[in-house]
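Deviations from the work plan: none for this task. Representative record:
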Amino acid sequence: MDSNKNFLVGIFNDEEVLLHAVENIRGKGVKIQEVYSPFPVHGLDEALGYRRSRLPIAAFLFGLTGTSLALLMQIWMLGYDWPMIIGGKNFASLPPFIPVTFELTVLLAAFGMVGTFFIVCDMKPYKWPRQFDLRSTDDKHVMAIDLAANKLDKNEISGILKESGASEVNEKNF
Amino acid sequence: MQAQSILRESLITGGKTVADVSEDISRQVEGKPTKLWWMAFGISVVVFLYGFYCVCFLLWNGVGVWGLNKTVGWAWDITNFVWWVGIGHAGTLISAILLLFRQKWRMSINRAAEAMTIFAVICAATFPFAHMGRLWLGFYWVFPLPNTWGSLWANFNSPLLWDVFAISTYFSVSLVFWYIGLIPDFAVIRDRAVRMGHKTRAAIYNALSFGWDGAARTWSRYESVALILAGLSTPLVLSVHTIVSFDFATSVVPGWHTTIFPPYFVAGAIFSGFAMVLTLLLVTRKVFKLEDYITIYHIELMNIIIIVTGSIVGIAYITEFFIAWYGQVPAESYAFINRAFGPYWWAYWAMMTCNVISPQLFWIKKIRTSIVATFVLSIIVNIGMWFERFVIIVTSIHRDYLPSSWSMFYPTMYDVGEYLFTFGLFFTAFLLFAKFFPVINMAEVKSIIKSSSEKKH
């Protein structure tokens, strides 16, 4: 982990002001470490230049695994390992296997995707997040700027933050 | 300048700000429970314990303590099972289907409705477990375990086994969906606890929130997870009651063997689920003073869904009757005439009155915007939906092909006891949820505060 870092923390009251501020600040060549919000702000990820999440692909692959596992399991158990005549149907007939296949597809897709989400976001019950300002879960949008990662000095960045509509600019060391 | 629609009412009233949302919703988690809460909790626990005694008695002595007989082998147990599963459907409909349709009014009611789903499915699951008799052997009957372990592979051609997979998938995916929604709100309570200096509470809610940070990157991933989960839950919720209806529809019992069952069961499930959501939310909003978040407009919209699904159910009842006549199968026709005019006529007409006639009252705006009328009608609908399942199950099997085996079903105190057990379980769980978890999705409500609050910024 990166320790002993100096951050400038800009506090914004309004999501629209924040969105314009992000564009303005990035336009001036300042690197934003991260923005913390109490609720999802639409368009913020694009404004910050983040790539679209690839979690849907993970969900699809997990779902595909579920489909294949369910089909293989049912066909192998009732078709090959111990064939039984049930209602005169074929041993391995597809239609009665569809419900279980569907359920296992959904189950694996959901659990696989949520598990992946926790891993990629590094979320665990015993971990405390790095908090720049406790109000970021209440009603403020908090923008963190790593001073070491930027060429401009503290006062210049602070000026840009204020001019973009930040209600407060604080300093925070970790 | 902000454009204001004259057609749509505000979703959040009282000129709330984003900070007010955190304050209003977290307060109930942070404060001590009220006297009213303790009273309700006490009653629920007593009912639960009495039911628990009945369940233990049942497990010790066997299913014979119920009022079942050779002709009526399924009665209250499966009626209650289908009833509770059906109630669960509204939660997923609100959180998943309304999310896909971008219906913003879902946001203040989805949390409580999803909690209701989860507890209702737990209650439903107790009935098949109890009906197994030797519960510990159920392990071999539902899990695909190898033959050498003492039983054959589970039969994947059986709708009862599909049901096991459907209900357990539905339960676990709903639980994950609900929990994912709770994570940012747990973080709100954690940060408030840090500011108030409650160290233990902060640690507990941080663990519950999985160390949520609220970063833009996390939110972006979180939103795609929520959207995909909604996409997965939508066919799931429709499949669950479809598969429950297969338990009956794939049999050859007159009255059960109908192709209309899947859509009819799904509509009925949503119908009863919304009724239960209304019953619970009308009390919750009063007790926790959430009138500004769960407004009359929300109640009205839910009542409109009740009219729609109630009318679908009504049409299904009539269609069943028509097909029984049109199909000209004597056993089928008899089953339906017996249903309406046989010894269980009172159950049939109770169902018709509660499910077909009473929701039509919601066409009147005064009734669907009245809290008292909505509360009464929501309970009537749930009574009607219980009778629907009872009518389908018991009237279809109590007179089979052999008149010598015709019989009636009389519940014993253990039938009643297990039903009470699930009520105790449901309300105990819901009250604990309402005390310790935020009952309204704060993050979502905050995101619409600007566009939906009366106060313009």
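The two ends of chain A are 11 Å apart (CA to CA).
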